[in-house]
Amino acid sequence: MTLFALPDSDTLYRALVARDSSYEGQAYVGVTSTGIFCRLTCPARKPKPENCQWFDSLSACLEAGFRACKRCHPMRATGEAAPLVRELMEALEADPEKVWREADIAAMGHDLSTVRRVFKRQFGLTFLDIARLDRLRRGFEVLGDGGKVIDAQLEAGFSSASAFRDRVGRLLGTAPGRLSRDPILCIDWIDTPLGAMVAVADQTHLHLLEFADRKALPRELQGLAKGAKGALGFGRTEIHTRTKEQIDRFFAGESAEFTIPLAYHGSAFTQQVWDALCTIPAGTSVSYGNLAAQIGRPTATRAVARANGANQIAILIPCHRVIGADGSLTGYGGGLWRKERLLAAERTYARKSMA
Known about the structure:
Keywords: Activator, DNA damage, DNA repair, Methyltransferase, Transferase. It catalyses: a 4-O-methyl-thymidine in DNA + L-cysteinyl-[protein] = a thymidine in DNA + S-methyl-L-cysteinyl-[protein]; a 6-O-methyl-2'-deoxyguanosine in DNA + L-cysteinyl-[protein] = S-methyl-L-cysteinyl-[protein] + a 2'-deoxyguanosine in DNA. The protein is an alpha/beta fold. It has helices at about 10-20, 60-65, 75, 85-95, 100-105, 110-125, 125-145, 150-155, 160-170, 215-225, 240-250, 270-275, 290-295, 300-310, 335-345, 345-355, and strands at about 30, 35-40, 50-55, 65-70, 185-190, 195-200, 205-210, 230-235, 285, 320-325. The chain is globular and about 65 Å long. It starts with 8 loop residues before the first helix and ends with a helix. The model has no long low-confidence stretch (mean pLDDT about 80).
């Protein structure tokens, strides 16, 4: 299923309130106020509509940073035909502090290759991936709320401070202890159906919005830290709140309009390209040559492509709407699979515009 293949948010919310079993295994709700995701048949008290995010797969829920509900057990829903899935997920729920390794799985009498294959088929992730995501999410929640690195390390289940610092360091490009405790530029997380995004903002502008697994992210954060003279650290501003609200509306199929003030970090030419990207309507795409002609530089196709690749505010500056001259998808820092899903999803906006 692609994004927006699900019904609209109002329909899904009505199904949630009615505990409609017809969506079993096809739709899930992530509750932003609690960080939990559920089946639509969950007996728990229903969240407010504005606190709901809708997903079409379990892996999307997990990659967006949500944890499974302990009342409706959504991770067991597709595991009914696989006893090993039920057994491992129950073990994970029973001991969330456990640091899982392959040896632990083997000790339970399971074949590692079988476990890997079954989990990938059912969830799009391995069992160890699921366990690591949950641990790392808990650690970043502590850091995001102003907690100490040692507390975040322990919450994430890392017995070694160096291992936790190494994992965070690979993601952020610097050890968490070196981040500013009184930052000018604040790092926060935004969960989306396509995975977690890292957002950097000050009190007035958004400086960066990237998918957390983008390879260039550490280098980009280092550049921002240098420009801010080291005043980069965890925190949350009003810009983060507004960005999340508008990103949620975008993925809910409600609006592709963004009004967040953006801070550009690039040359005058690069900024000109980024401005041009923002004029491409959702649901349409252009080639690099088209974009070069649009800014009055028809022979600068390669330079336009480089500027497109240098964009560090994903989705809001829609570099995913630029494709090859032959109509093929070309490089995208967040991964071609995300580019494909974004373009497919935005056709909804094109249809609305035509209507």
